[in-house]
Amino acid sequence: MGEGKSGFELYVREWHRMMSKIWLDRLALLGVYHRGSLRESVADAGTKRLEFGGEYEVHATYGFLTYGLFVDAGTGKYYKRGNGGDLKFLDKSYRAERGYGKMRERRPWFSVSWDISRRVLVDRLGQVVGGHFLGILASMR
C-alpha cells in the first residue's frame, strides 16, 4: 500500500490500455463482427487521451463507433426516443410478413466490463488514499 502518486498513475495508464483489450475480447467472445469497423474503433480506443489533473484526478477519453452502444443495448437505428413505445417492427407477425428475421439481442461488450473495471479503479484509489492516511496517522505523535 505504500504506492505513491506516480505508482497510481502507472496503474491508471495500464488500466486505460487494458480497457480496450477487454472490450476487444468481449466483442470476440460475443461474436460481434460484421465489417470489422467496430473492432477497429475499439482497438483505437486504447490510444485515446488520458490526463492527470490535481491530486489523484484522472480524465480518460475513449472513442468508438456509436453503433457499438446499439450492439451493447440490443437496439438499432429504428429505436428512437419519443415514439411512444409503438415499435411495430418488434411484433413477431410484422417481422414475419416483412422477412425481418430474428430480433436483435443485447450483446453487452461494453457496459458490463466498464462498470466492473471502473469499480476496480475506484477501489484501487481507495487503497492508495487510505494508505496515505494511515501514514499520516502513524507519523503523528
Q: What summary fits the major beta sheet?
A: 2 strands, antiparallel
Helix content: 40-55%
The unreliable regions are none
Q: What fraction of residues sit in β-strands?
A: under 5%
Characterize the overall form: elongated
* Overall SS class: mainly alpha
Write a concise keyword list for the protein shown above.
single chain, 141 residues, mainly alpha, two-stranded antiparallel sheet, 5 helices, 2 strands, 55% helix
Present the secondary structure layout.
Layout: H1 5-29, H2 37-45, E1 50-52, E2 58-60, H3 67-73, H4 92-98, H5 111-139
Antiparallel strand pairs: 1-2
Helix pairs in contact: 1-2, 1-5
Report on the architecture of this protein.
It is a single chain. This protein has 141 residues and is mainly alpha-helical. 55% of the residues lie in helices and 4% in strands. It contains 5 helices and 2 strands. It has helices spanning 5-29, 37-45, 67-73, 92-98, 111-139, and strands at 50-52, 58-60. Strands 1-2 form a two-stranded antiparallel ribbon. Strand 1 (50-52) and strand 2 form a beta hairpin. Helix 1 packs antiparallel against helix 2 (37-45) and helix 1 packs antiparallel against helix 5. The radius of gyration is 21 Å and the shape is elongated. The two termini are 22 Å apart. The model has no long low-confidence stretch (mean pLDDT 79).
Short description:
The protein has 141 residues and is mainly α.
